[in-house]
Amino acid sequence: MRNLRLILAFDGTTYHGWQMQANAVTVQSTLLECVCRITGGQPNIIGCSRTDAGVHARAFCCNFKTESAIPCGRLVAALNSYLPDDICVKSCDEVPADFHARYSCTSKEYVYRIRNSAVPDPFDYRYTLRYRHPLDENRLAALARAFVGRHDFAAFCAAGSSCGSTVRTVRSFNVERCGDEVRFTVEADGFLYNMVRIMAGTLLESARQDSALLPIEEIIASRDRAFAGATLPARGLCLLKANYDGD
Hints:
The chain is α+β, with helices and mostly antiparallel strands. Helices cover 21% and strands 31% of the residues.
């Protein structure tokens, strides 16, 4: 058995996230159909993250085990010939038998993109949230520093979600402006359900002069979702990459 790692890029607009669901088209189910068609097997494809409906990815890692002897380069070409235009395989390599796209991952990086303009962009609306009010990226960056470190992020997890520990380590949270676009880029050892979208929404609300939110440090300490900001739409969120030891 070979253990193969794939790096994917996809536009998540028309998919109900990564993970396979009954009566819904997902990235995992679409990829599996192509893998089965090419290899003749039906492997369990493991993803580095579930990703919500509408979330995009530039370098999504997944792996599966197969008895197929198709070389990695040929497999990439074959998969891309069958996959729809909004999903592509960027690379394939053979990894050790114990490699697991989810559990071997040491950290993940996401970016939330905001179009800070009164004028919409028809070529970018599927990938950004338009925010009309002026944004001070330096103030946002100063506020975002409160997220960095090891904290209990229960206040930044969607209500009703089931998970074990809500403690995560945020390694970095950067804010930068590129013309009319403001980007929130965050790296952590793991993320809770809707965590990045809630952190981004909290930052936007906290930066307003008339904000009624508590300081972010106090929101974290509260462990109460009711004190954090809104969950921003999925379309602005993109998984940049998953990191692994030895990469």
